[in-house]
Amino acid sequence: MTTEPPEPHPRADARRNRRTVLDAAVALLAQRPQATMQEVADASGLGRTTVYRHFPKRQDLIDALFEEVLREAAATMEEAVKEPRSARALLCDIGERIIAIGDRYAFLDAHPELRERALQGAGGSNADPLANYLAAAQKRGEIRSDLPVAWMLTSLRGLTIVAMVERQAGRMTTEEAGSYVGETLATAFLAPAAEDDRGK
Length: 200
Fold this sequence. Notes:
The termini are far apart. This protein folds into two domains: 11-56, Arc Repressor Mutant, subunit A; 65-199, Tetracycline Repressor, domain 2. The radius of gyration is 20 Å and the shape is elongated. The chain has helices at 12-31, 37-44, 48-54, 58-82, 87-104, 112-121, 129-140, 149-168, 174-189. By secondary structure, it is an all-alpha fold.
């Protein structure tokens, strides 16, 4: 007796259900980071059995959400550096984009170890578009050449964590946090000659 090989890709309805669970979990865990799987199932409108079919353990769901953060952060960085504009405009925009992702995935506030890993994933490898942009901008004279790119990325992660903590504590809004991170990056990293790009 021959057996059919497993389907290489999940069926469309299975993919939809998985997406529904993830979207419900993002919204629910942002409000209640310790929400149970049953509560996630209730919020998704799907049965508990369906939720557990996709995510047998709560940690499986958290890990899947973490992968979503990494994908979104990578796509956001890639999109940001493709837009033609000054280094100042890019750095200000990067701050706002990263904080917006942190706000959407606020469940990371309850998992600081994942938040740090997510931010590390947002910069640091040779294939990282932001790292490549900063290195190229240094050669063009737009970004300070006396600071290593690796240090700039580390500074970005540190600023982002502090801004997210401040936002969570209610001491600033999401918009303020993004603006402050971006302006701080621009002030710290722009080469003196690039300061004239402020209005561009």
